[in-house]
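re: ur question from earlier - yeah i can do the single chain one, its not a big deal. heres the input i used so u can compare w yours
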Amino acid sequence: MTRTAVIGVIVFLLIELPSAADVLHLKNGRTIEGEVTLEGDVYIVKRGAGVMRVPKISVARIEEKKPLHEIYREKLAAVGEKDAEAHFQLGCWCLSNGLRVEAKKAFRDAIAIDPKHEASRKQLGYREINGVWHEKCGTCDGEGKVQCLVCRYAKNLQRPCPNPDCGKTFPCAACNGQGAFTCTTCNGVGKLKCHKCDGTGKIESATGGQPERCATCKGEGLIDCQACTRGKVVCRVCQGKGVKQVDCPKCGNKGYIRIVCPECGGGKKVVCEGCKGIGAVPVKGEAR
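and the output i got, formated as tokens:
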């Protein structure tokens, strides 16, 4: 078998076993279980959503197996109607083979025959409370608490900030409300003398002829000041807005505050109404 086929076998064996399957016994000692069909010189093995191809030459033999549910029906037919322990053992077999629904039925049948069959009650998760058998509450999954619907969404707990000064602004003291300063580099002109031509707009010709136009300032003699924008430097304190917002100590300038949920007190969960907080509900028709 090629390396790719071996890797395929290893990955495929990790997939959950199916309810009905045959077994391919490979010549290298490995086994592959699944729904097997032969297409030419290749076995097609299906198991759940997984499919793999096994060359016929790699297979030593095929072992046909009964579907799991057929085996279950045979075992169920062999169980005595009044044998609680036999129903319990059937339930354990079902659990080991992934038949959870059938296992639950078998354990309940055992209890119906023998109400004091402790092992079956344990498998079903039953517990006795004040003389009454209880099973796990399906509403809260046995936790006794469920998610609080009042605070499920954060907006339900938001209220406008009570601070009357929240959101108010005042003139920026750094720039006196102007939002910018006059550039000290160019004195607010926005232009500087060209360093290439010394402000003349002309430079000497490389050939010794007539002066040429300065390419740096395009003959203007001036260049843009890199320290400002049109002679102004933006105030970093107010980001050019000219005003500053009052720092609100209550909401941190968010404009709203969070309140404690009146239903759950901030715990995000409340007592389950289905089981009254004990995590279990009475098993229908049973008492002790």
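Residues 100-113 form the longest helix (14 residues). not sure if urs matches, ping me
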